[in-house]
Amino acid sequence: MIEILGNIVPEDDYTHPLGSESNFNESMYFNFFDPGRSVGGFVRLGNRANEGRAEMTVCIYLQDGRVLFEFKRAPIDHNDAFDAGGMRFDVLEPGEKLRTAYTGSVADLKDPTAMADPAKAFRQSPRRRIALDLLHCAAGPMYGGTKNQQENDAEAENQFAKAHYEQHMSVSGSLEIDGDTVQLDGYGLRDHSWGPRHWQAIHSYEWLTMNFGPDFGAMVSIIRRTAESERAGGVVVRNGKLELISEVAIEAAYEENGLYHRALDVEIKTHDGEELQISGQVKGFIPLRNRRAGMTTHIGEGMTEWRCGDQIGYGLSEFLRQVE
């Protein structure tokens, strides 16, 4: 199964030497969606060993609209493993099979948009004890790579990551909530990046992950390093093979605040000339934020139901914006 698009290797699944930059970040992220149960979510660990901490996030969308959420800055002093804050990622077979696990407390958000004020949301929400244990197996090739030397030499303050790759996955495992266990079976996407990172180093982006089944998925992105520069692309994955996307158009509908997206129309064209029209309805939404040096970054996370022709799939729509 191991095919790679880009200048990465399966062994890049392991952690890398800690860079000298104060904001060196190595992170892994996994999302997962069980279409039968309408349950999904994502987990992330971002090692910032030079800052003495790891950023740990777990977010689980439940069928009734609630979101189980936790974020921690867990202390670390090395970049030898992804293991912090009750979360652990293990590479079982590079490029093919990984395990994610989290045991700990989460906030039970009846209204997930309350996370726009994290301190208040955490203070006023009941707590649940969960245990999440998932196996992620390759459902397509790895794709991504490292940037060129000129980009690598850019000031760390202006970098978002010097290396990055993604991969569509099948996902199975269990979720236990206060002692009650459900089995999960579905699909998702993972990514891995390393290098200097500040969330404020980029103007905005839309990142869409889609899984329609074992043999059809897509990743679509539009990235704006500045308000004037835009890079659009992505991949379509069919039967374990990649097709590069050459053109992308995303139209989004928003809530009244003009920031929380709720529906999308996506048009893509592959390098081979195929055109696909995909619509999305956000089924669960949580607004997250990152603050630094007087700047606030909004990251809107939407569990999304996708439709492409007569096929229905699930995935995540993530919108990043710098806001006042």
CATH topology annotation = AttH-like fold
| Strand arrangement across the biggest beta sheet | 2-3-4-5-8-9-11-12
Radius of gyration: 18 Å
Can you tell me the CATH class? Mainly Beta
* Terminus-to-terminus distance: 46 Å
| Structure summary, number of beta strands | 20
Itemize the secondary structure elements and their pairings:
Elements lengths: L3 E2 L18 E11 L4 E10 L4 E9 L5 E9 L6 E3 L2 E7 L3 E13 L8 H7 L2 E12 L3 E5 L2 H4 L10 E15 L2 E17 L7 E10 L2 E9 L6 E8 L2 E14 L6 E10 L4 E18 L2 E14 L2 E13 L1
Structure description:
The chain is mostly beta strands and 324 residues long. The chain has one domain (4-323): AttH-like domain (AttH-like fold), CATH 2.40.370.10. Residues 148-154 have low confidence and may be disordered. It starts with a strand and ends with a strand. It has an eight-stranded antiparallel β-barrel. It contains two helices and 20 strands.
Structure keywords:
324 residues, mainly beta, AttH-like fold, eight-stranded antiparallel beta barrel, 2 helices, globular
A few lines on this structure:
The chain has helices spanning about 120-125, 150, and strands at about 5, 25-35, 40-50, 55-60, 65-75, 80-85, 85-95, 95-110, 125-140, 140-145, 165-175, 180-195, 205-215, 215-225, 230-240, 240-255, 260-270, 275-290, 295-310, 310-324. With about 325 residues, it is mainly beta. The radius of gyration is 18 Å and the shape is globular.
